[in-house]
What we know:
With 431 residues, the chain is mainly α. The protein has 22 helices and no strands.
Amino acid sequence: xxxxxxxxxxxxxxxxxxxxxxxVDRSNTSLLLGAYFTMFAAYMLLAQRSFNIKSLLFLALAMxxxxxxxLPNLSDDLYRFVWDGWCSLRGISPYQFTPSELxxxxxxxxxxxxxxxxxxxxxxxxxxxxxxxxxxxxFLSGGDLMISSGIxxxxxxxxxxxxxxxxxxxxxxxxxxxxxxxxxxxxxWLLESYGNLHFELVMLSFLLGSxxxxxxxxxxxxxxxxxxxxxFKLHALILLPYFFFRLGWKKGALFSAASLGFxxxxxxxxxxxIEIEAFISSFGLYFKKFEFNASLYYMLRWIRFEWLGxxxxxxxxxxxxALSTAFILFISYxxxxxxxxxxxxxxxxxxxxxxxxxxxxxxxxxxxxxxxADLRFPLLWSSLIFLSYFAYGxxxxxxxxxxxxxxxxxxxxxxxxxxxxxxIFRSFKAR
Length: 431
């Protein structure tokens, strides 16, 4: 009876807090952050207890079904999904015209939907299979936002079911039962996937499939699965160097060629309608214009501002991107004999340290693979990164550098603690 009470109370607290997080306006940051950290505390109480798998899946499903009653409240990406879907259904490539250009050409496009878009002056950057999802969803929903969000959530459920299936076949039974509650009940995982409809979950399901197939000594099918992952979220390709070095020069080259070739095939039908310069410019936003919850970039921005008197993101952003790329190549080679989960966490960490924009959903993969690799700092980060939403409660979305500094300082200190930094330093020196 006492054990039941210990599980029932945190479960109810988790559900109640999730309800608040899904329903409250993002400008109400006090309530939002309070509910999230309450949710996280309940999650910590539950995840470390032994869980009956059926009970766990029931609780996880209940929380996911709850999201079906709400539109995303912390992200406006849904509106771009539906806009791109309408474009495809009308025979217009989302890569050809910006929303602003389309509205001038065709006033029948919804001005109400247009008003909700982020970056209407730039063409879409979502890859081909994501566009297929947008078009299918918009067709089935008729553009209704609530119905569209429901269909997207069904896709999330299917993708997550596939992910759990791959986890079951990758991990020993004991490890599987250990990882599952830490993953399925994680508040950030729930809110960013089902609440805010970010396609990292879909990408990760195919990425995990690639890993499972690779473990079984295959290379062609893993290459296809990596391509499928990148066809929903292109940043999956930052793992290509690791796969290359892991497989060796010959198989690695074949693997890379197969992955890139398959992605190329998916883009071929769209090539005649792609404005290449505009497409590259849209991607450049993430290096030259957008900035949010960054670490190293904000430090360099402050230094450069002191020297130059203005924000120099157009130079600093690409410089950091190039530096991150070099480090990713290096660490991919050094970790080529390590398991994929460990490699993913460190590669993604380097990528995010060098990024000018670090949204909370960017670390969902680190939560997944960190749980598998027994690295706890992604779990800690999944609690602290939610502090970045504090900006939505301020005029002009002004970020709190104090909170961002607190977030990264705590995470960095925990990384050093978890890795036993001095010991690792000596081992590298010995080599």
